[in-house]
């Protein structure tokens, strides 16, 4: 069965393997797309973390105690009973490997898993920087560089093309690659600086994600954060 590792949000009747008696600390901020990618992965796996709100805009990531955990001062970070890990892609892989009832969200098969890894590296190396360079200047009251906007459009076109032959970002079933992309794409859409509906396959996949992820928190996690960030962009762009 596709995605059988996914359990409904707050479903207390399903206890993922190895997860019975402890809670993972998640250093998180709602406006941060990689933070939301990790939280929705946790919800998909049936994990209810202990959320520690960590706001980079308020300087929380630069506090000495946080820097001891994560010298790169980024969110998200997890602390799983002393095992500290940062970078959303690494965290999502760890969570599926450690707590997934199966490997559907990050396949162990080398070729299928490599497709997921490639998408995660694309998010980290291209999509997230493209989002950052085109949206943060606007939040700061400036305009983004045309070359950066073009790079983001190229990334959107690339994903649209991927989805011509693939139902999900990394193959025919949902994986953490979809979580990594949807948290950014929904934020780009909510911010209104780029027309996501211009990319037909990406737009169709976006609607598919809303449906498929609704049972484990699409609205509450992915959309709520996207709208919070989008509201900030729209206010600054006024
Ligand atoms: N590749 C990292 C990126 C994390 C990242 O840059 N997070 C931003 C918020 S979205 C942050 O923490 N910025 C604060 C800082 O860099 O000090 C990941 O996926 O976790």
TrEMBL record:
What are the GST N-terminal domain coordinates in residue numbering? 22-103
Which molecular function term from Gene Ontology is one that the record holds? glutathione transferase activity
**An example of a Gene Ontology BP annotation on this entry?**
glutathione metabolic process
Q: Which domain of life is it from?
A: Eukaryota
Gene3D superfamilies xrefs? 1.20.1050.10, Glutaredoxin
InterPro entries with a match to the protein in the record: Glutathione-S-Trfase_C-like (IPR010987), Glutathione-S-Trfase_C_sf (IPR036282), Glutathione_S-Trfase (IPR040079), Glutathione_S-Trfase_N (IPR004045), GST_C (IPR004046), Thioredoxin-like_sf (IPR036249)
Oligomeric form and interacting partners: Homodimer.
Give the protein name, as stated in the record: Uncharacterized protein
């Amino acid at each position: 069965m596709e995605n059988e590792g996914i359990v409904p949000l707050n479903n207390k009747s399903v206890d993922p393997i190895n997860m019975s008696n402890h809670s993972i600390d998640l250093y998180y901020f709602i406006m941060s797309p990689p933070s939301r990618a990790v939280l929705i992965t946790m919800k998909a796996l049936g994990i209810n973390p202990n959320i520690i709100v960590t706001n980079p805009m308020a300087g929380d990531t630069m506090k000495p105690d946080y820097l001891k955990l994560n010298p790169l001062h980024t969110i998200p970070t997890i602390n799983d009973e002393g095992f500290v890990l940062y970078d959303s892609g690494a965290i999502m892989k760890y969570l599926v490997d450690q707590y997934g009832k199966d490997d559907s969200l990050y396949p162990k098969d080398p070729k299928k898993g490599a497709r997921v890894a490639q998408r995660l590296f694309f998010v980290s190396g291209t999509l997230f920087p493209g989002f950052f360079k085109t949206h943060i200047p606007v939040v700061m009251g400036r305009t983004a560089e045309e070359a950066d906007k073009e790079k983001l459009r190229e990334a959107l076109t690339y994903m649209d093309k991927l989805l011509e032959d693939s139902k999900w970002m990394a193959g025919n079933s949902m994986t953490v690659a979809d979580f990594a992309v949807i948290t950014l794409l929904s934020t780009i859409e909510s911010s209104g600086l780029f027309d996501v509906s211009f990319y037909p396959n990406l737009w169709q996949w976006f609607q598919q994600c809303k449906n498929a992820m609704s049972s484990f928190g699409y609205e509450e996690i992915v959309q709520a954060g996207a709208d919070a960030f989008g509201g900030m962009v729209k206010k600054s762009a006024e």
